Amino acid sequence: MSEDAKTRGPVEPMARDAERKFDRRRFLRGAAAAGGAAVGAAAGALPAVAAGNPENQPPNIPEWSKSLGASVVDRPYGAPSPFEKEVVRRSVPWLTATPESAINFAPLGELHGTITPNGLHFERHHGGAPDVDPTDHRLIVHGLVERPLVFTVADIKRFPSVSRIHFLECPANGGMEWKGAQMVGVQFTHGMLSNCEWTGVRLSIVLNEAGIKPEAKWLLAEGADAAAMTRSIPIEKAMDDTLLVYAMNGEALRAEQGYPLRLIVPGWEGNVNIKWLRRLKLGDQPWHHREETSKYTDLMADGRARQFTFVMEANSVITAPCPEKPLAFGAGRYEISGLAWSGRGKIKRVDVSTDGGNNWRTAELQSPVLSKAVTRFRLPWRWDGKQTFLQSRALDETGYVQPTIDQLRAARGVNSVYHKNSIHTWRITPKGEVDNVQVS
Amino acid sequence: MSEDAKTRGPVEPMARDAERKFDRRRFLRGAAAAGGAAVGAAAGALPAVAAGNPENQPPNIPEWSKSLGASVVDRPYGAPSPFEKEVVRRSVPWLTATPESAINFAPLGELHGTITPNGLHFERHHGGAPDVDPTDHRLIVHGLVERPLVFTVADIKRFPSVSRIHFLECPANGGMEWKGAQMVGVQFTHGMLSNCEWTGVRLSIVLNEAGIKPEAKWLLAEGADAAAMTRSIPIEKAMDDTLLVYAMNGEALRAEQGYPLRLIVPGWEGNVNIKWLRRLKLGDQPWHHREETSKYTDLMADGRARQFTFVMEANSVITAPCPEKPLAFGAGRYEISGLAWSGRGKIKRVDVSTDGGNNWRTAELQSPVLSKAVTRFRLPWRWDGKQTFLQSRALDETGYVQPTIDQLRAARGVNSVYHKNSIHTWRITPKGEVDNVQVS
What we know:
Two copies of one chain form a homodimer.
Chain A: H1 15-21, H2 24-34, E1 37-38, H3 39-42, E2 103-104, E3 123-124, E4 138-143, E5 149-152, H4 153-158, E6 162-169, H5 186-189, E7 193-202, H6 203-210, E8 218-223, E9 230-234, H7 235-239, E10 243-248, E11 251-252, E12 262-264, E13 277-283, E14 298-299, E15 305-306, E16 315-320, E17 332-341, E18 347-353, E19 361-362, E20 364-365, E21 375-383, E22 388-396, H8 405-412, E23 425-428, E24 434-437
Parallel strand pairs in A: 4-13
Antiparallel strand pairs in A: 2-3, 4-5, 6-7, 7-10, 8-9, 8-13, 10-11, 10-12, 14-15, 16-17, 17-21, 18-19, 18-22, 20-21, 22-23, 23-24
């Protein structure tokens, strides 16, 4: 814990060092002392042990071990356990004018690993989530092309397919905190972030079908929702790794994720990943539509707006502990765990501070580390039971280091509600509760 | 297509060669000619183009572009689009005595990429799927250990966590076809296969907490369901990569997948991945419980049973086309796509034959290729409109080559219903329909 990552370059590998220094066996003894109970002491409280095993009949056999459970005909499509009913997306009424132009935040504090299950993927709409009939839906490609084309969904599915795991993040994630507001819970500070395996077609294949004229430099993408969400995308990105997607985590897109067709623009702000995609138009300049002028621009300190901040820069957040997941066992050993991601490529390293930024240790990264995808990081920690401050700091493969809030405000002022990716701080109280605070 | 993989060694890399030889642009021109319609000809039929865009008012604007869609308060936990209601798990009544001791098959023909969404993960129970209350559930570790221990679910979650993507396959997958039965559809020939990101604790950590006595060679794992599913596992595997899991694809295990705790024994037959795990006992020999003697042994030609066939050997199946997904556009270009997996490690190569096994081409593998996880393979193909036979053949990193049905029957007879991993054949009819056949 004495290792100070600040004195190192941004891309030196530290994970193996940290792993060697962590005495795993000692950590485990500590956890067992706090957690697992010796059988002799706890046997009277054992409800579920060894039913039907004559050597050790427990006093209480739970009902679920004595009667048949649900049959397979009950669940053609499954749902979470009834004991998980609090693990849901949540909205914040005061954030939006109507529930159709609103945000549903993913419960990051209750999620594990890296994949976001489809039922909990965050959602952000401007006119509600329509139920589009895939047989009636069409995608038109026109503008500066040799051959304007109209595709059915079945047409699109005939093209060579590809699957990629990518994060999706609304650029307003955390944006309420530019000026110092304190959201309560990681679901609301960072829950406009999700990570799925997307399957579809490389957009370049579809655009090449239409034949791109040499003067085409921008792509207009338009949704079929009532808001007709419309954004301009540079042709280089459209032809690079942008995907025309029809499936997420193995199954068809959910309605709220753009069923039956959407764009996935890897690493770029969520808003350009147009859902219910119905139109692609090629042109020689951006269109300056409503959602890329009055919104989704960054208002700077001098009153000018920075337009087209497409890339989501490296960011990270600790999800355990967090306000929803306090330190419930008193002083002792815990695993700190969280998520890191970068719109520019792979996460190279994540440093964690357990003393408000004075000292940093390098966390272990869960493999595989994928480009423009969420990476899970983990670090063992012994809490001494006193107040302290937890922080995480992501570094990506380009050498970019997640900034402090002071660094970010110095560069961009406090007027924006977008692209706030500064180091996040959780305060641990002596009771083990976790508060959202800002540390300068 | 003239490349004959049979003349090569089993582990030579062929993917790059095949990729170079495939003329992607020519493929795409073919697809567009069949698929995308020119705008001029089809404009009258465009329901969804350019609403609110004065330059190109279409004749019909669909209702979903004119009225607000679903609000975020409607969907705390999402569900598939109503247009996807046929994409569900399905059971086969004649296969099982009661719906609580049954199989619900995953709809592989409708799935994309590699991840199985939790709602569609195959399920196989022997006493139904219980709704276990996690606060009352306990896991006991006893037998040949230094310190018998009882854990709550919260205790288990305090240990260092890990996430891994692994397939899970019932060893009876395809087993009805040992003797020549023909299931109708890939959902029933191979649908006892799924692939998730599992999160939990390395089992070795928990067992080391209890302290393994030197004479302990086997582990008994027992479920809390009414069937008290019980299996014996060698200690080497338990201490290697076996996981004690509480989450799948980011969220808590589903009830039908063992909520709140299960084993994941990577690459081993599904039945040993004990769900609703309540007991781990260490011993010096296997227990020979009901589910590893009367069932889950392989009855050989000479009447003896092969016991403890744990590993799921390399296997593969083409999921597009398949009986549920025929060639719907007549002669022309299609993408052949499917799944390959091996319980011994990574898939090294998948060969595809479009002429019943005479010639083989190497398919493209979707990255990342992960150990003991499903790998998606893809190959472009031009169908000439005539009857033919499609096959896929997986090779894993150990050099193992998926066998023909004749090779498998020669080695193991036809009495078993388990571990049938032979090359699967789809017959394409001149109408583009797809039948399940067996080719010797």
